[in-house]
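Project outcomes to date are best conveyed with an example. Our students and postdoctoral researchers have been running inverse folding experiments weekly, and each run begins with a structure described purely in tokens. The record below, which covers 682 residues, was selected by the lab manager from last quarter's runs and is presented without edits.
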């Protein structure tokens, strides 16, 4: 009995003690969950809905319309006034879709499970790299030691040998590591040499982007940024001298725009005619140091140079530095490498160049996304593409392609100006045009083989990035001077579509096979009005004036008869004159080419919407073109055919499905935001 009484007296204590443990446990779990939620929110700032079927653009479309304007009087103001009032001039209607696709792609990649350190699959390589890059974004790692080691390997940090040549360093950074200081150097198909793999030079896009970002910084902020970077890498830059020198670089290189898109073919032996102070033999020697033996250049070989005036100024800058002999340009190269690779090394290397930490993190996240999407586009986008575009959706899009092709074939057959010889080749080219929907088939069955050359990813993103790019650039250089292969090289996450003339291939990435362009829930007419319009645009690119010399095999040879060409060029001149009042001043009023850059190419492939966007005063000046009367001058077309907006009753309110935006930056301001969509009958 005593023992029983003791137990009775002790039981309340034990009861309260167990409650105390339970409450403590629950509190601990709550705190842990809160921390995880906050951490996850700071990483995954993405929409809660990742299924494209729930991406509803109805609200955005309602806000875009101007209900006080009449669509028959001014279609542009009716559709775009609401959008323009709430968005900047550089934003486009489907930028929201691109952001959603990017977020969904990142989430799909982050869900990839644990990866082994060896023998990783292609998707695992991409996933590990992106996750380790996000660690920099979260300020959980600091890879500045890896950055300093890379700088020392190139003799960019003291003590520095006097024999270091700035031209060799710049070429090596571009050709070996894909770090474009002044020049972007790549191996691409040469359209002039029937697709032979050729070396291309162009201006560094990142350098131009940095100039633009720097121009928005306060002077003290730029000074602090340089000082902070120098302290982190243990090398004291003279901030004032470096900023002054960069001002000189910006004034020399940043002002060139007229020739930015003009590409020339240049013999190595003739390089010295375009690069003052740098002989052709020196170019040959420096480039060959960074090429594999099987791809070495000869003086008689050619390279492709985009923006030759920019290359000249770069050469003059190098020549001027050689005359001064103060190593200032080499010091600037070191600074640029730190600034370029800084987002992959440490948050503290980026934060001083932004107004706040949030902007710095957003920039790092953007650079991580772009870097992986450029380095391994198929592995990076494969999880998203396969999830978001099921087999049925691919089949539906292929069916749409066949319908549009048949419509164009019927147009060829009914053409009164195209002779039989030209028509037969045009139809053959149309029939043999390949179509890639969502992703290449090898993404399903040969992705690991495609990226077999890419090394396994490590726990340090910067190390993984440098190793992967070195091997990738070596693989591309091995293909120099070899015939073209049927490769694709496109990003699965792009909300866009493409036509490759060299392979006569139309590419429709997974990114654009989403609402509002396409949805399995939409009626067929709506999908044709959205994605079908894009498909037609890309198909017609195979027959615009940049591709008419390329038959079905993509080789450049003239397959037009003289009479058909005369008839075609007459209509092209008329179309150019029609577009002249819209501000596309690459052509004079006679249709003669003015500046050497074909800015109307995309418009000629699909001009149906642009004329509707012309202001009323410009419409009055619009020239008549006989059989090619501008669409808006045809009675009744605007109200009866163009403005066939599909409505669906939803809660008593009309739901607008059809919406298309033009992202062609060469078009005038008012036509970049939105263009009319002409739907098929019924």
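After processing, the design step wrote out the following sequence:
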């Amino acid at each position: 009995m005593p023992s029983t009484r003791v137990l009775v007296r002790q039981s309340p204590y034990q009861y309260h003690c167990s409650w105390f443990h339970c409450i403590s446990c629950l509190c601990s779990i709550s705190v842990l969950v809160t921390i995880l939620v906050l951490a996850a929110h700071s990483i995954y700032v993405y929409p809660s809905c990742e299924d494209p079927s729930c991406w509803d653009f109805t609200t955005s479309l309602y806000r875009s319309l101007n209900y006080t304007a009449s669509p028959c009087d001014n279609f542009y103001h009716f559709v775009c006034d609401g959008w323009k009032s709430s968005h900047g001039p550089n934003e486009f209607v489907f930028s929201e879709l691109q952001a959603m696709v990017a977020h969904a792609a990142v989430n799909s990649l982050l869900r990839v499970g644990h990866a082994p350190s060896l023998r990783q699959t292609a998707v695992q390589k991409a996933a590990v790299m992106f996750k380790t890059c996000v660690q920099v974004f979260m300020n959980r790692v600091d890879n500045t030691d890896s950055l300093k080691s890379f700088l020392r390997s190139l003799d960019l940090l003291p003590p520095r040998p006097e024999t270091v040549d700035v031209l060799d360093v710049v070429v090596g950074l571009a050709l070996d590591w894909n770090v474009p200081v002044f020049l972007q150097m790549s191996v691409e198909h040469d359209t002039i040499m029937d697709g032979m793999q050729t070396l291309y030079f162009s201006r560094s896009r990142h350098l131009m982007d940095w100039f633009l970002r720097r121009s928005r910084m306060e002077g003290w902020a730029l000074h602090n940024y340089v000082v902070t970077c120098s302290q982190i890498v243990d090398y004291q830059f003279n901030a004032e001298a470096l900023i002054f020198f960069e001002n000189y670089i910006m004034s020399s290189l940043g002002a060139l725009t007229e020739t930015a898109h003009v590409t020339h073919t240049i013999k190595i032996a003739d390089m010295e005619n375009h690069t003052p102070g740098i002989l052709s033999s020196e170019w040959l020697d420096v480039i060959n140091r960074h090429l594999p033996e099987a791809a070495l250049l000869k003086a008689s070989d050619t390279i492709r140079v985009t923006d030759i005036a920019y290359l000249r100024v770069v050469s003059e800058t190098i020549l001027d530095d050689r005359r001064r002999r103060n190593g200032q340009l080499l010091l600037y190269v070191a600074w640029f490498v730190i600034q370029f690779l800084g987002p992959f090394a440490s948050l503290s290397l980026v934060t001083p160049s932004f107004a706040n930490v949030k902007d710095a993190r957003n920039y790092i996240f953007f650079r991580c996304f772009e870097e992986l999407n450029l380095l391994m586009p198929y592995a990076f986008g494969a999880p998203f593409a396969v999830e978001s575009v099921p087999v049925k959706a691919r089949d539906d899009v292929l069916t749409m392609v066949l319908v549009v092709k048949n419509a164009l074939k019927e147009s060829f057959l009914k053409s009164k100006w195209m002779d039989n010889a030209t028509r037969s080749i045009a139809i053959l080219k149309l029939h043999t045009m390949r179509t890639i929907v969502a992703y290449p088939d090898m993404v399903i069955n040969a992705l690991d083989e495609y990226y077999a050359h890419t090394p396994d990813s490590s726990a340090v993103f910067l190390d993984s990035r440098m190793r992967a790019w070195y091997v990738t650039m070596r693989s591309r250089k091995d293909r120099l001077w070899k015939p073209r292969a049927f490769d694709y090289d496109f990003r699965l996450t792009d909300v866009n579509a493409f036509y490759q003339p060299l392979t006569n291939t139309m590419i429709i990435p997974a990114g654009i096979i989403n609402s509002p362009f396409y949805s399995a829930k939409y009626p067929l007419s709506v999908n044709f009005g959205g994605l079908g319009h894009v498909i037609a645009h890309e198909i017609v690119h195979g027959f615009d004036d940049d591709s008419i010399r390329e038959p079905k095999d993509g080789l450049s040879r003239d397959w037009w008869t003289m009479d058909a060409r005369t008839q075609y060029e007459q209509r092209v001149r008329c179309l150019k004159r029609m577009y002249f009042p819209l501000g596309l001043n690459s052509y004079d009023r006679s249709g003669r080419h003015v500046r050497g850059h074909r800015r109307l190419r995309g418009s000629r492939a699909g001009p149906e919407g642009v004329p509707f966007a012309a202001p009323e005063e410009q419409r009055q000046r619009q020239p008549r073109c006989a059989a090619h009367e501008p669409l808006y001058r045809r009675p009744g077309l605007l109200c009866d055919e163009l403005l066939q907006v599909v409505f669906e009753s939803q809660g008593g309110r009309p739901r607008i499905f059809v919406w298309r935006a033009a992202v062609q930056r060469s078009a005038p301001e008012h036509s970049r935001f939105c263009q009319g969509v002409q739907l098929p009958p019924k």
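The first strand starts at residue 183 and ends at 190. The two ends are 94 Å apart (CA to CA). The training component of this project remains on track.
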